């Protein structure tokens, strides 16, 4: 019986059924994405360091060395650059950024080269005008009234009165025929010059005979300067070459010891250098050392008073200055 009961005992077989993966948040994907982003940022940093100029790297290093220096002490920061080109500075051909001292040196070299070219052009122009006067029999008679002078501001061409041979009608701005011929020759010579022109009219100290009507030596000198301008333009000189036409009356005498001398009545034509042009237009603020400007009275140096250019009708009055 015991044997039969043992034989009838059921056999239990346990089978373990393996299920799928458990649900999770994919943390490994986030970690992998962070790793890839970090690697990309690293390679971008290496590329930027390899392609950035030495000047920019120095600026970055200085900024991180003293980040509050600009904010507390003032001055320009890393974002104040006026150039978006790699390297920056005044010379875009350089692969590295320029230090302020380097930019100043480059500017000085550029100005020196411009001054050298101006000197060559103005010397050639002076020789051309001198040859024109010498080769023209009509102009040769008036060679004593045409004065050429090279100044730091450019080539000054002065046409002066001579005793018994005035350039304009007495007390008027009407151009005499020989003066017109002189201006036409000078205007033709200036046609091929790139430099800008400043033109000034001058009188002697003899007061205009009818100042009570509001017309004085200031208006007379301005009218004569404008009359000369018209003759230069009629000779072919482009009008946009002129940047200033002024009347200076007797404020800048050529012969101070003799204020009534005929030579004080004159027309001054200044062919300006580039530096003088920039100073006159106010685009160059370098301090001018007294005594180094071209010609007395300022002309292009801007030290003489500039009267208003009043286009008043010419008035002929007895005893008026020439």
Give short descriptive properties of this protein.
322 residues; alpha+beta; 60s Ribosomal Protein L30, Chain: A; 5-stranded mixed beta sheet; 40% helix; rod-shaped; disordered C terminus
Write the layout of secondary structure elements.
Blueprint: H1 2-7, H2 27-51, H3 54-65, H4 69-73, H5 100-135, H6 137-140, E1 146-151, E2 154-160, H7 177-190, E3 197-202, H8 217-234, E4 242-247, E5 266-272, H9 274-281
Parallel strand pairs: 3-4
Antiparallel strand pairs: 1-2, 2-5, 3-5
Please describe what this structure looks like.
- By secondary structure, the protein is of the alpha+beta class.
- The chain has a domain at 112-285: OmpA-like domain (60s Ribosomal Protein L30, Chain: A), CATH 3.30.1330.60.
- The protein is 40% helix and 10% strand.
- The protein has nine helices and five strands.
- Helix 8 (217-234) links the parallel strand 3 and strand 4 (242-247).
- The model is unreliable at 82-88 and 285-322 (pLDDT under 50).
What can be said about this structure in brief?
This protein is of the alpha+beta class. It has helices spanning 2-7, 27-51, 54-65, 69-73, 100-135, 137-140, 177-190, 217-234, 274-281; strands at 146-151, 154-160, 197-202, 242-247, 266-272.
CATH topology of the domain at 112-285: 60s Ribosomal Protein L30, Chain: A
* Arithmetic mean of pLDDT: 74
**Which outline best applies?**
rod-shaped
User: What proportion of the residues is helical, as a percent range?
Assistant: 25-40%
Structural class by secondary-structure content: alpha+beta
Largest sheet: 5 strands, mixed
Bin the strand percentage: 5-15%
- Termini gap: 165 Å
Number of helices: 9
CATH architecture of the domain at 112-285: 2-Layer Sandwich
- Could you name the CATH class of the domain at 112-285? Alpha Beta
Question: What is the H level of CATH, i.e. the homologous superfamily of the domain at 112-285?
Answer: OmpA-like domain
Segments where pLDDT lies below 50 for 5+ residues? Answer: 82-88, 285-322
Major sheet strand order = 1-2-5-3-4
Taken in chain order, the helices and strands follow as HHHHHHEEHEHEEH
